[in-house]
């Protein structure tokens, strides 16, 4: 009787081991990823690269969907700040239009988009981001705002118009993680000495 129970336990253990090994091999074969897929996955990681057709567009989605902000989107991508613009926020982004970038001295944008100028570009872009979610009329109560690059920017009211860092807010669009204030000028942070 002991021999029969011992044999059954040994046979059962062997059977479980075979099943475990075959399952493990099946999982291994299903999880093989090509080198091209690995490169794609590692080069674009984070919240910015998750697609979602159901929720309210975030700040990055709004910029990407705007034909007037292609230069801004290219700058955000060059500075690798996509994930920052999809954070929960709330964030206020003062988004210069393409024509605002075109008004900069010739060659400025091209120079900023070079990989060696990534940190300078990131600093300029962060100067366009403020924590909070305030509509244009509420911004009239402020004299200055603290920007994401740890500098302050002046807020001025001229009639019904609001200027932030000398840039006029020409439109505002609510986002899932804040608000996009479209501005007519690129705000350049004061030089740090």
Concise structural overview:
This protein is α+β, with helices and mostly antiparallel strands and 193 residues long.
Describe the 3D structure.
The structure is a single chain. By secondary structure, this protein is α+β, with helices and mostly antiparallel strands. It has eight helices and seven strands; from the N terminus they run ααααβαααβαβββββ. It has a seven-stranded mixed beta sheet.
Taking pLDDT < 50 over at least 5 consecutive residues as the criterion, the unreliable ranges are 1-50
Estimate the strand proportion. Answer: 15-25%
Got a strand count?
Answer: 7
Output the helix-strand order: HHHHEHHHEHEEEEE
Q: Count of DSSP helices? A: 8
* Helix vs. strand class: alpha+beta
What is the typical, i.e. mean, pLDDT?
79
Distance between the termini: 90 Å
For this entry, give a set of tags:
globular; 8 helices; 193 residues; 39% helix; seven-stranded mixed beta sheet; disordered N terminus; alpha+beta
List the helices and strands and how they pair.
Elements: H1 2-30, H2 35-43, H3 59-64, H4 70-78, E1 91-96, H5 98-102, H6 108-112, H7 118-126, E2 129-131, H8 136-139, E3 144-146, E4 152-158, E5 161-164, E6 167-175, E7 178-183
Parallel strand pairs: 1-7
Antiparallel strand pairs: 1-2, 3-4, 4-5, 5-6, 6-7
